[in-house]
Amino acid sequence: MPVCCAACSGKAVLKRPKTGDALCRECFFHVFETEIHHTILDANLFTAGETVAIGASGGKDSTVLAYVLKLLNDKYDYGLKLILLSVDEGITGYRDDSLTTVKRNQKQYDLPLKIVSYEELYGWTMDAIVKEIGLKNNCTFCGVFRRQALDRGAVLVEADKIVTGHNADDIAETVLMNVLRGDIARLRRCTSITTGNEGYLPRCKPLKYTYEKEIVMYAYFKKLDYFSTECIYSPNAYRGYARAFLKDLEAIRSSSIIDIIHSGESLSIKKDVKMPTQMTCLQCGYISSNKVCKACVLLEGLNKGLPKLGIGKGLKARQKLVAAGMTLTNTESQSTSTESTAVLNTDKQSLEF
Ligand SMILES: Nc1ncnc2c1ncn2[C@@H]1O[C@H](COP(=O)(O)OP(=O)(O)OP(=O)(O)O)[C@@H](O)[C@H]1O
């Protein structure tokens, strides 16, 4: 006997991963889009007239984000100017192919597209960086440079905000990883739907409560055009363990993902926990949690033929930086320990959008 849709009594074609409800295609589209609309409204993410840069990697998350944002912007008259913003990290056989997908999306969704590249911004492609540093710490460079490249691209297109396709699974994983690493300072911030206020370009995650499985289903039923290959340089082992653990929890109880996010949101951090402060990099003028930003430290290392400069913990890293002729102020030299640890935590950074 065919299963009926829980919403309209038509023929169900799927079981919704988030709630277990049997739904027909149209009702699934409706709840999926409406939930994102409510996330946007509840968090007051946008104001009419704003230009919003969509971080577009060509993958499923950002493709669904671009599609749904365009749809909601038209349907509910948000009054936003949407722009696709892609960062070309210079990874042959990966990013070149995914950018081809973004170029197709640009036509399909009729949105402007801006591409910025590591080569033009930093003088290095990831292919060249991997040749220098190998596969061990390359994600550090990529995460740090991408974060800044998105900012720089957004400034070029005069965007008021950046949105990224981070989904509920990504955020729950980061909560777990921050707990496992004891990184309490980042634990609270990683669940924020908007980061980077206080004078910096805000970054928002409209898919914060959207399950990855539902994003895949939505993309499948809508026949969206996206690129699904994993990055050839990023084994990202630790996140992989958190991901596998989360998937096990989800299989036992599907609400685990949202429950973990809610736990992260509800945590209160003791006053004496040192929180990173944001400032402007003295060298490049972009956002930083130290006087000289991680991107400048890493770039200096590459340009000096010392690619491991800035990678390492505490005293050793400070000694390497000073030996390489990088001037550290008192505060900086005291904070280098925290800074360098942060440099190592690449996948954490990629979530601090
Ligand atoms: N090269 C890029 N250019 C522009 N935005 C990017 C790029 N890489 C990542 N992003 C943004 O950061 C988000 C999270 O990136 P991550 O690398 O975790 O990819 P993901 O979870 O596989 O997402 P996607 O499916 O969109 O690729 C993406 O959804 C996208 O919005």
Automatic annotation (TrEMBL):
CDD domains on file: CTU1-like (cd01713)
Its EC number(s): 2.7.7.-
Record-annotated Cytoplasmic tRNA 2-thiolation protein 1 C-terminal domain positions: 280-309
Official protein name in the record: Cytoplasmic tRNA 2-thiolation protein 1
Stretches for region Disordered: 332-353
Subcellular location: Cytoplasm
Function, as annotated: Plays a central role in 2-thiolation of mcm(5)S(2)U at tRNA wobble positions of tRNA(Lys), tRNA(Glu) and tRNA(Gln). Directly binds tRNAs and probably acts by catalyzing adenylation of tRNAs, an intermediate required for 2-thiolation. It is unclear whether it acts as a sulfurtransferase that transfers sulfur from thiocarboxylated URM1 onto the uridine of tRNAs at wobble position.
Bias type Low complexity, positions: 332-341
Enzyme class: transferase
Record keywords: Cytoplasm, RNA-binding, Transferase, tRNA processing, tRNA-binding
Pathway where it operates: tRNA modification; 5-methoxycarbonylmethyl-2-thiouridine-tRNA biosynthesis
HAMAP family in the cross-refs: CTU1 (MF_03053)
Predominant location: cytoplasm
Polar residues composition-biased segments: 342-353
Family membership noted in the UniProt record: Belongs to the TtcA family. CTU1/NCS6/ATPBD3 subfamily.
Domain tRNA(Ile)-lysidine/2-thiocytidine synthase N-terminal, chain residue ranges per copy: 52-245
